[in-house]
């Protein structure tokens, strides 16, 4: 049993989080949260431990300026595009794929290059605080096996997909037939599902899924023939728990081309629906330019949207109406979408999600006033801090179908967490902010200081502030991992 004692911030809904400067969180041997008690002031600590029968347990006491939050969930990124990040911003999507992205991805036919690259990529992503990640690989079976092996050995929670792409791609970076694409899809699923299960099971065993799982990855409708999409739909139907990830309505030229390639489909979302690929565990990246009918279809199918604001700015795609989706009750998480996005950290996605919402608010002519709590509407309004935190954690968990396991702290859920450090010695000055002795603050005042630390961390924090990264109770990254 591992017990943390200190400040904890926990998303509770799209509009709220709970915070306590003095929480006790107990983690069992399987890495699940056993119990939580909030607001245990120091003079009550021993008594509370005694009530829990843990008087002799070792307690990991957080310092002032350290706090726990649930780990970040990146619902959409491309591991093989990380070497390209920060380049190519002069193009829009279709040219960017042709001139920047496909040439880099084709290099992953070289398994040695893939291994060297993916080790660096996955390490950086974990150390940036991403405890769950939805990875696109390339179309290569062997390189994608290597990616999954590395993620598994580093202890991250992830979905790893081999791209399906058998048309509208360069001749040296394309799958030669729908059959070949499906054969490699079956092979990557077998490879990933044969990873050994965790050795220790807890009482929530029936909820435990393997940390690393396969995910169907039709790159986007343009790059898949009807035949291939149809075969993927058949495969999906026989594996209801298998997640599906793809891109949707990112760019106007892309949408126009998609409509031309699928004249019988009622819409872009309708293409995926036609082939049985739009369901409650489908992750749709971007969704910048959806029609009202598509939003309703996505809501009806209970599919989730990965909001990738950095990429949407960088590739000149547009500003997604995330507030409208939230008002409709569509599940939304955040995605970095490297290298359409130029930053691997979910913190950067949070920052740009905030800016994107403010742009929509300004364009709609809305004033910057706090939202009345009785009428929670998000459309074309700035996203409050609790909402941004929720999208990066619990919202991402919903999009991935992992809401019973991760995204917030609760007994029975996995301890996937970040220990954030805003103390001056973290080296990112300006986050700490208060100079008074903490002893003179009331509980309420300390909660307000925590609010400030969280906001500063979300907007100005970086790897220097990510002290420890835990997945399923295990230390897997962060600064303390490398000491
Ligand atoms: N942003 C982005 N959109 C895509 N659509 C199809 N492939 C891609 C990709 O690699 N990145
Ligand atoms: Zn993408």
From TrEMBL:
Catalytic activity entry: guanine + H2O + H(+) = xanthine + NH4(+)
Biochemical pathway: Purine metabolism; guanine degradation; xanthine from guanine: step 1/1
Keyword Transmembrane helix recorded: no
Record Gene3D superfamilies: Metal-dependent hydrolases, Urease, subunit C, domain 1
Domain Amidohydrolase-related: 67-476
GO term, biological process aspect, one: guanine catabolic process
Its EC number(s): 3.5.4.3
GO annotation, cellular component aspect: cytosol
Keywords annotated in UniProt: Hydrolase, Metal-binding, Zinc
Record InterPro entries: Amidohydro-rel (IPR006680), Guanine_deaminase (IPR014311), Metal-dep_hydrolase_composite (IPR011059), Metal_Hydrolase (IPR032466), Metallo-dep_hydrolases (IPR051607)
Cofactors named for this entry: Zn(2+)
Record text on cofactor binding: Binds 1 zinc ion per subunit.
Catalytic EC class: hydrolase
GO molecular function terms listed in the Swiss-Prot or TrEMBL record: guanine deaminase activity; zinc ion binding
Function of the protein: Catalyzes the hydrolytic deamination of guanine, producing xanthine and ammonia.
PANTHER family given in the database record: GUANINE DEAMINASE
Family under the similarity heading: Belongs to the metallo-dependent hydrolases superfamily. ATZ/TRZ family.
Protein name according to UniProt: Guanine deaminase
Native source organism of the sequence: Gymnopilus junonius
């Amino acid at each position: 049993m591992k017990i943390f004692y200190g400040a904890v911030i926990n998303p509770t809904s799209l509009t709220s989080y709970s915070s306590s400067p003095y929480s006790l969180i107990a983690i069992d041997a399987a890495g699940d949260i056993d119990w939580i008690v909030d607001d245990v002031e120091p003079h009550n600590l021993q008594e509370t431990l005694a009530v829990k029968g843990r008087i002799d347990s070792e307690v990991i006491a957080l310092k002032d300026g350290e706090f726990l939050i649930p780990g970040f969930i990146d619902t959409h990124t491309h591991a093989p595009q990380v070497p390209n990040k920060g380049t190519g911003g002069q193009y829009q999507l279709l040219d960017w794929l042709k001139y920047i992205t496909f040439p880099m991805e084709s290099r992953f036919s070289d398994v040695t290059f893939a291994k060297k690259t993916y080790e660096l990529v996955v390490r950086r992503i974990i150390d940036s605080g991403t405890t769950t990640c939805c990875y696109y690989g390339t179309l290569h079976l062997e390189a994608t096996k290597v990616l999954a092996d590395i993620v598994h050995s580093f202890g991250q929670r992830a979905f790893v997909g081999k791209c399906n792409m058998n048309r509208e791609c360069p001749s040296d970076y394309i799958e030669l037939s729908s059959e070949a694409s499906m054969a490699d899809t079956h092979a990557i699923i077998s490879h990933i599902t044969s990873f050994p299960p965790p050795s220790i099971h807890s009482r929530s065993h029936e909820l435990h899924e393997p940390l690393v799982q396969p995910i169907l990855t039709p790159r986007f409708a343009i790059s898949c023939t009807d035949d291939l999409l149809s075969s993927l739909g058949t495969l999906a139907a026989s594996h209801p728990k298998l997640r599906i990830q793809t891109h949707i309505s990112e760019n106007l030229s892309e949408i126009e081309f998609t409509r031309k390639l699928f004249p019988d489909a009622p819409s872009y979302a309708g293409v995926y629906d036609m082939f049985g690929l739009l369901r409650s565990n489908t992750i749709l990246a971007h969704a910048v330019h959806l029609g009202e009918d598509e939003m309703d279809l996505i809501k009806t199918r209970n599919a989730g949207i990965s909001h990738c604001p950095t990429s949407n700015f960088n590739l000149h795609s547009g500003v997604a109406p995330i507030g409208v989706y939230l008002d409709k009750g569509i599940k939304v998480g955040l995605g970095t979408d490297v290298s359409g996005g130029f930053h691997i950290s979910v913190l950067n996605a949070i920052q740009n999600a905030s800016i994107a919402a403010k742009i929509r608010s300004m364009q709609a002519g809305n004033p910057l006033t706090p939202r009345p709590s009785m009428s929670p509407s998000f459309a074309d309004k700035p996203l409050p801090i609790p909402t941004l935190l929720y999208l990066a954690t619990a919202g991402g968990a919903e999009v991935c179908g992992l809401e019973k396991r991760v995204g917030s702290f609760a007994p029975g859920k996995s301890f996937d967490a970040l220990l954030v450090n805003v103390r001056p010695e973290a080296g990112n000055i300006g986050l700490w902010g208060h100079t008074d002795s903490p002893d003179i603050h009331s509980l309420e005042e300390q909660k307000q200081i925590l609010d400030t630390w969280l906001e500063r961390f979300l907007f100005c924090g970086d790897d220097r502030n990510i002290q420890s990264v835990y997945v399923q109770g295990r230390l897997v990254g962060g600064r303390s991992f490398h000491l």
